[in-house]
């Protein structure tokens, strides 16, 4: 008998197969037990008929509890009435472990309860689909950069210096010194780009942000490309190509998952060239027209980003933010120093900023001056300044947040479901 996975079940119609998994749900009438079995690749109805199995197997099926681990054998049949279109007519059931008092019942639970049971919550069909989409999304992004012949260069997690401002650092000890968890691999990426031309890093990043919004996590994954001899516009072109590549492939490869999540994919199907590009000034005008009390120099929060993106049917770039709003490394526009060569990409449907990036300062003196203004400890950044001493060149890059991107693709209400074990303000369990 063949060991198979549920995702391949359609290939075995009429054959005897063996499945290893868990009991997700059960319905019974006097003579039949309908076991819904899951094996990590899918869910399948397994029908146990009294007259067709031994009395022991029928009794065991009656006794099985939610999430008990089992091995089930039977014949695969097409069954249009079953979810997925197939079922197993069971010949044998073997119990591996009987699960008692499983806490997550198949009814609505509060989100706090579910988050406290995240280690079990991920077994449900919806969470399964989200995690599978996440895995596909990451694979697709890696493929994109590999096809464009970028080199993956891992940046360190433990760092002596900050990249995105000193207010959101998680501090830890590095023996007798202070160290921080990385907020972004960008600074190391810049060194790597000067060595290898086109590079990207992809890893967890950390921000001690006292923000309790549906878009903020304390630990999130970011993919960050960095390119030597790219200006701001080259950077936006690359980001646009990347997003279109991602969406086209996820629509093909994530069909089953998007369907499970009930995602209306018509919005995703519209994602194509060209993405609208507006300046920060134009964005301010849009907001004023929409009745926002906003002034030049103000940063955009979730509501502002949503209002801007509502004007467009696909992702929109906002570029040339005021220099004072952006990080120390952002290059000022040579034609107007008050503006920076920065760009964010805002996702449609109210998902806000999914990409942040821009062109970096390549002049040593200007970078030094900006670092002094920001009170950065120059000693810790000497290596970074070296990059402007030895073969400096125009260069640009950006960071894409995986969780926000996935929240948009899957149209989820909150980023907490897009990462296996979310780190939220006031929550680090489980
Ligand atoms: O705009 P950010 O802060 O940019 C940087 O970190 C640059 N150093 C990246 C670069 O140029 N290499 O963050 C980039 C993206 C955001 O657009 C967002 O998608 C995500 O990272 N992000 C978060 N996602 C979840 N929770 C948070 N607290 C996030 N902060 C940023
Ligand atoms: Mg940003």
Number of strands: 19
Strand order of the largest sheet: 7-11-12-19-18-17-14-13
Given the helix and strand composition, which structural class is it?
Answer: alpha+beta
Low-confidence stretches: none
Distinct small molecules bound, one entry per kind? 4-amino-1,4-dioxobutan-2-aminium adenosine-5'-monophosphate, magnesium ion
Q: Features of this protein?
A:
single chain, 430 residues, BirA Bifunctional Protein, domain 2, 2 domains, 8-stranded mixed beta sheet, 13 helices, binds magnesium ion
Secondary structure blueprint with pairings:
Elements: E1 2-3, E2 16-28, E3 32-38, E4 43-49, H1 55-63, E5 69-78, E6 86-97, H2 111-116, H3 118-121, H4 125-147, E7 151-152, E8 158-159, E9 171-174, E10 177-181, H5 186-196, E11 198-206, E12 219-228, H6 232-253, H7 255-260, H8 266-269, E13 277-279, H9 280-289, H10 302-309, E14 316-319, E15 332-333, E16 336-340, E17 342-347, E18 352-359, H11 364-373, H12 382-389, E19 395-401, H13 402-410
Parallel strand pairs: 1-2, 4-6, 7-11, 13-14
Antiparallel strand pairs: 2-3, 2-5, 3-4, 5-6, 8-10, 9-10, 11-12, 12-19, 14-17, 15-16, 17-18, 18-19
The structure holds 4-amino-1,4-dioxobutan-2-aminium adenosine-5'-monophosphate and magnesium ion.
Architecture overview:
β2 (16-28) and β3 (32-38) form a beta hairpin. This protein has helices spanning 55-63, 111-116, 118-121, 125-147, 186-196, 232-253, 255-260, 266-269, 280-289, 302-309, 364-373, 382-389, 402-410, and strands at residues 2-3, 16-28, 32-38, 43-49, 69-78, 86-97, 151-152, 158-159, 171-174, 177-181, 198-206, 219-228, 277-279, 316-319, 332-333, 336-340, 342-347, 352-359, 395-401. By secondary structure, the chain is α+β, with helices and mostly antiparallel strands. The mean pLDDT is 97. It starts with a strand and ends in a 20-residue tail after the last helix. The chain folds into two domains: 2-97, Beta Barrel (OB fold (Dihydrolipoamide Acetyltransferase, E2P)); 118-417, Bira Bifunctional Protein, Domain 2 (BirA Bifunctional Protein, domain 2). It is elongated and about 85 Å long. It has an eight-stranded mixed beta sheet with strand order 7-11-12-19-18-17-14-13. α4 crosses α6 and α4 packs across α13. Helix content is 30%, strand content 27%. Residues 163-164, 184, 186, 207, 209, 216-217, 220, 222, 224, 353-357, 397-399, 401, 403-404, 415 line the site of 4-amino-1,4-dioxobutan-2-aminium adenosine-5'-monophosphate.
């Amino acid at each position: 008998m063949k060991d198979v996975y549920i995702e391949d079940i359609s290939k075995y119609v009429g054959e005897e197969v063996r499945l290893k998994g868990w009991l997700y749900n059960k319905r019974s009438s006097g003579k039949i037990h309908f076991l819904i079995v899951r094996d990590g690749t899918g869910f399948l109805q397994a029908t146990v008929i009294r007259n067709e199995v031994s009395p022991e197997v029928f009794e065991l099926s009656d006794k099985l509890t939610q999430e008990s681990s089992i091995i089930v054998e039977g014949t695969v049949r097409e069954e249009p009435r079953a979810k997925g279109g197939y079922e197993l007519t069971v010949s044998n059931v073997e119990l591996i472990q009987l699960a008692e008092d499983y806490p997550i019942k198949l009814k609505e639970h509060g989100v706090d309860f579910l988050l406290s049971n995240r280690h079990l919550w991920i077994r449900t069909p919806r969470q399964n689909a989200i995690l599978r989409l996440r895995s596909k999304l990451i694979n697709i992004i890696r493929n994109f950069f590999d096809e464009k012949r970028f080199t993956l260069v891992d940046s360190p997690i433990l760092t002596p210096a900050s990249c995105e401002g000193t207010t959101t650092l998680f501090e830890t000890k590095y023996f007798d010194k202070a160290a921080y968890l990385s907020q972004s691999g960008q600074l190391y990426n810049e060194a790597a780009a000067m060595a290898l031309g086109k590079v990207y890093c992809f890893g967890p990043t950390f921000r001690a942000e006292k923000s309790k919004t549906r878009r903020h996590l304390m630990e999130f994954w970011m993919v960050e490309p960095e390119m030597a001899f790219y200006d701001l516009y080259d950077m936006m072109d690359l980001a646009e190509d990347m997003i279109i590549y991602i969406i086209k492939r996820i629509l093909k490869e994530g069909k089953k998952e998007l369907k499970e999540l009930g995602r209306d994919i018509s919005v995703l199907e519209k994602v194509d060239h060209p993405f609208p590009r507006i300046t920060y000034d134009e964005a301010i005008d849009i907001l004023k027209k929409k009745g926002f009390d906003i002034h030049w120099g103000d940063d955009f929060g979730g509501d502002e980003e949503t209002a801007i993106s509502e004007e467009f049917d696909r992702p929109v770039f906002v570029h040339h933010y005021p220099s004072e709003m952006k990080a120390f490394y952002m290059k000022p526009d040579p034609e107007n120093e008050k503006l920076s060569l920065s760009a964010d990409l805002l996702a449609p449907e109210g998902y806000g900023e999914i990409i942040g990036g821009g062109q970096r300062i390549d002049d040593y003196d200007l970078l030094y001056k900006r670092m002094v203004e920001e009170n950065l400890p120059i000693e810790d950044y000497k290596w970074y300044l070296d990059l402007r001493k030895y073969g400096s060149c125009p260069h640009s890059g950006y960071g894409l947040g995986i969780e926000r991107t996935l929240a948009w693709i899957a149209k989820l209400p909150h980023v907490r479901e897009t990462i296996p074990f979310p780190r939220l303000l006031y929550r680090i369990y489980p």
